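mind reviewing this fold:
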Amino acid sequence: MSKKLLAVSGIAVYAFLYLPLVVVVAYSFNNSKLNAEWVGFTWHWYRVLLSDDTMLKAAGNSLLIALTASLASTVLGTMAGYALYRYKLKLLPVLVMAPLAIPEILVGVSLLIFFVAINLTLGLLSIMLSHIAFCVGFVAIVVRSRLSGMDESLPEAARDLGATPFQAFRLVTLPLIAPGIIAGALLAFTLSIDDFVITFFTAGVGASTLPLQIYSMIKIAVTPEVNAISTLLMLLTLFLIVVASRLSPDSIRGR
């Protein structure tokens, strides 16, 4: 296959992936109540968005859930990643990686059944617990990849100099894998803030997040306000992905 054909194929693939996103962003500035045709440029829908209390409440819920889920999953995922790196147990990788391989709809249904079984009222708490459950595995993968690239002689040298195992981990290992931990936290935040499937099953009545609110709006009509909030959410997600990839590029690419 010639280089020219490869280049054309690559451009076609990226156009297929990103042109719809460009259209979403462009029509967020459309001076029309519907996205049927382009009328003119306006900032009106961003002003409408900022005065929409329902949308702002949903955005606040999403941020709260994402922050809580990312912090908790970072702690648990770091411990899980370290355990995966240090202990070669056959069952441990299966337990940690299972939520990544299982389809989200099955994870959502199983979590819903579990919450009902333990009589936990569905709401923000159930969403947080669900997001923590499926984000832990992603953080563990990133941290374990970072640990795999670490020079093992450094913590061993600390032990030879008299450091306890905890001191060697806190003063040597932890600073070395800190970029991977931060990258895992950002990845968990990104996955949590725009999750729909699992949130849909575990939200309950009255607990709305940004993806759920957007879904409820597009069932009626896709107005440029939906484009506006989608644009802001997309920019936030892309920013976090770029930051995470720069902190730990090899981990994010799955080396």
Q: What stands out?
A: The chain has one domain: 48-252.
